[in-house]
Specification:
By secondary structure, the protein is mostly beta strands. Helices cover 10% and strands 48% of the residues. The chain has one helix at 97-108, and strands at residues 3-12, 19-25, 33-44, 47-57, 66-71, 76-85, 88-91. Strands 3-4-1-6-7 form a five-stranded antiparallel beta sheet, with no helix packed on it. The protein has a two-stranded antiparallel sheet with strand order 2-5. A hairpin with a 2-residue loop joins strand 6 and strand 7 (88-91). The chain is globular. The two termini are 29 Å apart.
Length: 124
């Protein structure tokens, strides 16, 4: 079974845990089984910089695109993200929504699969 790892870098005033609401196959909506979570926090003055890695089992027999919903506390700010593709960690780049979708569309038109993160609300 292939594993999907999601790494979220969160800057927060308090070291509370993020909540992963759901993780599922984007095409089939089949849920991914939660496997593990690890977190590391570093205090820098009044801020806490935390890296959290969520690992899920991919129920598909092939590489697939996952959709993951993450809910942050009011005092937390997402400062970065990334994902594992096979054995390679792919760091994300935060950018303007319109530019991100332009790049995503260009890459998917070549049958390649980039990662994209969409902010749906201030906390999700």
């Amino acid at each position: 079974m292939r594993l999907i790892g999601l790494s979220l870098l969160v800057l927060a005033q308090m070291a509370s845990a993020q909540l992963v609401d759901q993780c599922f196959d984007r095409d089939t909506n089949e849920p991914f089984k939660f496997k593990s979570v690890s977190s590391n926090a570093v205090v820098k003055g009044p801020m806490v910089k935390r890296t959290t890695v969520y690992t899920f089992d991919n129920p598909a027999k092939k590489l697939t695109e996952a959709t993951i919903a993450v809910e942050l506390k009011h005092s937390e700010v997402l400062g970065g993200f990334g994902y594992w593709y096979k054995d390679e960690f792919v760091p994300g780049t935060l950018m303007d929504k319109q530019k991100a979708w332009f790049i995503y569309t260009a890459i998917t038109s070549r049958n390649e699969d980039p990662g994209i993160m969409v902010q749906k609300s201030p906390s999700s």
